[in-house]
């Protein structure tokens, strides 16, 4: 039984490190080549928020603060999607009372701003991810 628990905790730790923007050896998460919002979401967000963005990802049960349903951002904001605010939250420029930006929810701005081919596409990635979230809002 002890061996199974150790394996579970090792797997959990590895998944959490990936979700937190770091690899097992403490290095920064690998930046994917795509700048498309849907690809960024699947790579960096779905482990906690779920493939459907409703807060039911495989890591959700392990978090102290449950991931919110990202398809209801506009509904929670009076029917309007706050694109600029979502950009700032993803970038880590605006803190939330709990969750995003804490140890439970990493800030993706530094990961998205890794320079490749002499370009910093961080703002483009952040905006594309925010626009993807806008496009998946429930009507």
CATH class: Mainly Alpha
Outline type: globular
Radius of gyration from CA coordinates: 15 Å
Main beta sheet strand tally, sense and closure: none
Note the run of SSEs as H and E: HHHHHHH
Give the % helix.
40-55%
The count of domains is 1
Instruction: Output the number of helix runs.
Output: 7
How many runs of DSSP E, i.e. beta strands? 0
In terms of DSSP E residues, the strand content is under 5%
CATH fold label: Cytochrome Bc1 Complex, Chain D, domain 2
| CATH architecture call | Orthogonal Bundle
Ends apart, CA distance between termini: 47 Å
Uncertain segments of ≥5 residues (pLDDT<50)? 5-27
Describe this structure in words.
- This protein has one domain (31-135): Cytochrome Bc1 Complex, Chain D, domain 2.
- It is mostly helical and 139 residues long.
- It has seven helices and no strands.
- The longest helix is centred in the first third of the chain and has 18 residues, at 2-19.
Which features characterize this protein?
139 residues, mainly alpha, globular
Summarize the structure.
Helices cover 44% and strands 0% of the residues. By secondary structure, the protein is mainly α.
């Amino acid at each position: 039984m002890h061996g199974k628990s150790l394996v579970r905790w090792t797997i959990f730790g590895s998944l959490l490190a990936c979700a937190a923007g770091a690899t097992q050896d403490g290095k920064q998460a690998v930046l994917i080549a795509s700048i498309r919002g849907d690809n960024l979401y699947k790579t960096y967000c779905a482990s906690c928020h779920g493939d459907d963005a409703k807060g039911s990802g495989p890591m959700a049960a392990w978090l102290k603060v449950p991931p919110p349903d990202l398809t209801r951002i506009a509904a929670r904001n009076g029917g309007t999607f706050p694109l600029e605010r979502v950009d700032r939250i993803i970038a880590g420029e605006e803190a939330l009372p709990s969750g995003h930006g804490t140890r439970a929810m990493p800030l993706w701005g530094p990961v998205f701003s890794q320079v490749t081919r002499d370009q910093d596409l961080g703002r483009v990635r952040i905006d594309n991810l925010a626009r993807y979230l806008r496009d998946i809002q429930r009507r």
